[in-house]
């Protein structure tokens, strides 16, 4: 466990007679007694951009005089900690980092935030949040958590409440599947000429999965003449982990499939699901455009393989850099889709982190004030230097002025991808769904079952879990 402990600020004796400050909404600091007890925050590590958030927390402390203590845990440990703290109704932590799939199970333990937003001393600028991200991350029906919130292009708190929903967190970071690529290889004159001769078109960023596969095949080669392939076209995340599930889910989305129908019956063994899994498997087993160990890859191994120049393209949930020993230039593009009637249909998986107020906290207003600051427009723009995945429109607009061209390009791709991304199902037993699909993917890739048989078995397993959960 990594810990940042922000203690009491030492003040001049004369200043002890003065009030401190607190932050409400996204505006100026408000009055705060200097004797305010510390706020305790339970946060993630790098998966939710802890470096940026910790720096902003220190700034909040300096601005307001509010002491804050932040404990950070890696993903699995954080989930266990959040669930444990809430299950025993502990008031130790005031503010919690929550991954979206946890929400249906923990909603009864969270503080609804609509009233806080409406009564904030400074405007929250709700219209500045990316609406799709906000709705997926933060807006739930407390009784029927499976229900989708009303669609809207601009967040309207009154409309949310009138539809029977409330706001249970504020989005702090959003992740979506994107592709990093070796721009230097794409721009090399020899590559462009050879690709044109082989495929009869220019070597450009692919829009469809078929175009992507052509490029992956083209770059899979022996570069040093020893008879062994040492450069592969792409990565995948086929290891037994959540990464494999969201890989499959992205292919499923592209082909028009769904995990569940409207009655929450699992349907990912549909023709679209079989096509998604077979396509995914072909890239590894038939086309061999991925590194040999890809069936054990997660997001970490993908970053290593791409960073050390082993692949020309790499899919992940953040932009990837090259090791300094690898001379090259990195670019970014959206996860490809399929063309339908002249339109590219995409469906990259996305998921977000929110900051939620612990219902059992004795400092709920102060916890909300901190969450509002950390997700506010000013703080989010400050996150850009950390390559944080911001959730406000104004932060993406500010990213267009970053000095680094690769970062500007990545934020453009990230923002565009969030607009077409597909979130997770709103079920209490999400982990069981993910693990069943992971097993199906591994079973197919290992040759133990056909794609259809593996998915049929996973659907049967998930169906039983859904019944047990009461769906």
From TrEMBL:
Secretion signal span: 1-24
Pfam families according to UniProt: SBP_bac_1
Keyword Cell cycle: no
This protein's record includes keyword Zinc-finger: no
UniProt cross-references to Gene3D superfamilies, sorted A to Z: Periplasmic binding protein-like II
Domain of life: Bacteria
Keyword annotations: Signal, Transport
InterPro entries the UniProt entry points to: Bact_solute-bd_prot1, SBP
Record family assignment: Belongs to the bacterial solute-binding protein 1 family.
Protein name as annotated: Extracellular solute-binding protein
Species the sequence originates in: Paenibacillus aurantiacus
Organism lineage: Bacteria, Bacillati, Bacillota, Bacilli, Bacillales
């Amino acid at each position: 466990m990594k810990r940042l402990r922000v203690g009491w600020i030492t003040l001049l004796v004369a200043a002890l007679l003065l009030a401190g400050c607190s932050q409400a909404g996204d505006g100026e600091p408000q009055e705060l007694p200097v004797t305010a007890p510390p706020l305790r925050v339970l946060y993630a590590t790098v998966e939710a951009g802890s470096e940026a958030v910790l720096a902003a927390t220190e700034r909040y402390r300096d601005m307001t005089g509010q002491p804050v203590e932040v404990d950070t845990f890696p993903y699995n440990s954080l989930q266990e900690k959040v669930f444990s703290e809430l299950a025993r109704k502990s008031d130790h932590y005031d503010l919690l980092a929550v991954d979206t799939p946890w929400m249906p199970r923990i909603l009864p333990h969270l503080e609804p935030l609509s009233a806080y937003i409406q009564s904030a001393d400074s405007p929250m600028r709700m219209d500045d949040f990316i609406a799709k991200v906000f709705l997926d991350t933060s807006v739930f029906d407390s009784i029927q958590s499976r229900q989708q919130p009303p669609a809207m292009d601009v967040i309207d708190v009154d409309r949310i409440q009138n539809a029977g929903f409330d706001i249970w967190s504020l989005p702090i970071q959003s992740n979506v599947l994107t592709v990093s690529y070796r721009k230097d290889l794409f721009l090399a004159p020899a590559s462009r000429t050879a690709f044109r001769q082989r495929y009869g078109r220019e070597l450009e960023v692919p829009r469809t999965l078929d175009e992507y596969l052509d490029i992956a095949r083209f770059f899979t080669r022996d570069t040093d003449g020893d008879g062994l392939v040492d450069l592969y076209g792409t990565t995948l995340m086929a290891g037994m982990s959540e990464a494999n599930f969201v890989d499959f889910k992205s292919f499923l989305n592209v082909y028009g499939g769904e995990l569940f129908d409207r009655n929450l019956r699992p349907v990912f063994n549909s023709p679209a699901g079989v096509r998604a899994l077979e396509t995914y498997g072909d890239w590894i087993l038939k086309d061999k455009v991925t590194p040999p160990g890809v069936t054990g890859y997660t997001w970490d191994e993908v970053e290593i393989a791409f960073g050390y120049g082993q692949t020309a393209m790499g899919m992940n949930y953040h932009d990837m850099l090259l090791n300094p020993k690898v001379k090259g230039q990195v670019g970014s593009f959206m996860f490809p889709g399929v063309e339908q009637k002249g339109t590219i249909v995409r469906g990259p998986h996305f998921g977000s982190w929110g900051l939620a107020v612990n219902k059992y906290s004795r400092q709920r207003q102060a916890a909300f004030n901190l969450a509002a600051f950390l997700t506010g427009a000013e703080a989010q723009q400050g996150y850009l230097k950390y390559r944080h995945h911001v959730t406000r429109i104004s932060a993406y607009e500010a990213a267009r002025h970053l000095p680094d061209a690769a970062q500007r390009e990545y934020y453009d791709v990230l923002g565009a991808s969030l607009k077409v991304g597909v979130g997770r199902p709103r079920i209490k037993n999400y982990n069981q769904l993910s693990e069943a699909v992971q097993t199906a993917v591994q079973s197919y890739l290992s040759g133990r079952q056909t794609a259809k048989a593996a998915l049929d078995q996973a659907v049967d397993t998930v169906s039983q879990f859904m019944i047990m959960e009461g769906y």
